[in-house]
Specification:
alpha+beta, binds flavin mononucleotide, about 200 residues
Length: about 200
Amino acid sequence: MPPESALPAPRAQGPVPLEKALAQRRSQRSFGATPLTAAEAGQLLWAAQGITGGKGERNAPSAGATYPLVLYLVAGHVDSLAAGVYRYLPQGHRLQAVAMGDVRAALAIAARGQRWIADAPALVVIAAQPARTVARYGAHAEAYVAMEAGAAAQNMLLQATALGLGGTLVGAFDGAAVRRSLALAEAEQPLTIVPVGHRR
Ligand SMILES: Cc1cc2nc3c(=O)[nH]c(=O)nc-3n(C[C@H](O)[C@H](O)[C@H](O)COP(=O)(O)O)c2cc1C
């Protein structure tokens, strides 16, 4: 079983009002050299898929509460985390190491050569295991899962803005190449890559 590690507890409030984060969010494609802290990385993951309800409800909506999304933190420069790929476990707000080594450059190539992606200290890849959503919603599931990825990504981008960070929703990539770079299972589909870091 790959090692798991607890993330710092997510903060429940911050100084930036939602309206300010909405107005300030802009795609960020150039990053300063400052690493992310583990608390910042954890806060971004929590914003996207953290558990906030007593029945396991998360802070982004999910069709029929089927929760098909799986988030991967691709760490390059994150304090106290070795470069590597980590699966976010919403239950317990934990990370599970999946693979060691820096795959940011491989993901930049997979993203049609968008080289700036490799300079972000961290990337969050939103993938999906759509089986439960498909079982319940059949042909509608593909659209539902895409809607969920959009909602989770926007939560994360607003949280990044509120933390004084920036990111971009990246949709242009070769899915098979991303799957290879992250060693994803066949059943997992990468939906978006979100590079995040300090604004330059
Ligand atoms: C579905 C989708 C896919 C996107 N893919 C990329 C991408 O591959 N690379 C990129 O640099 N920006 C990408 N973007 C970001 C848009 O270019 C950006 O949101 C748009 O130019 C508006 O600018 P703003 O986000 O700063 O408001 C994507 C946005 C969306 C919604």
